[in-house]
């Protein structure tokens, strides 16, 4: 399979929102309630609920908190959010993006 085909196939599947990872994997594995996890993270329960409901994005600040909380650093959380956001934007802008010309700058020698 060509590289473009693999990238296209990957982009067809909706990336998992980081909030779903918290909701379905992290909190159940830790045996924590949303209230307790929010307390430990230093955020409101409502903030954590909105993330877990996939209503809001992971901010850099929240990525720092989650990276510390989970012991895996902020980069993972930001990359998951970026993949999700780019997937959504590509679908939202679809036809409009097709109308934008592609310019390739030549490198000066």
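^ Assign residues to that structure.
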């Amino acid at each position: 399979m060509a590289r473009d085909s693999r990238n296209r196939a990957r982009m067809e599947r909706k990336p998992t929102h980081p909030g779903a990872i918290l909701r379905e994997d992290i909190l159940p594995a830790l045996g924590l309630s949303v209230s307790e996890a929010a307390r430990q993270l230093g955020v409101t329960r409502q903030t954590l609920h909105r993330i877990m409901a996939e209503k809001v994005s992971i901010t850099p600040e929240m990525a720092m908190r989650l990276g510390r909380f989970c012991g895996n650093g902020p980069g993972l959380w930001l990359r998951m959010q970026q993949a999700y956001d780019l997937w959504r934007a590509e679908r939202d802008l679809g036809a409009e993006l097709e109308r934008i010309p592609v310019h390739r700058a030549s490198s000066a020698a």
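The longest helix spans residues 74-98.
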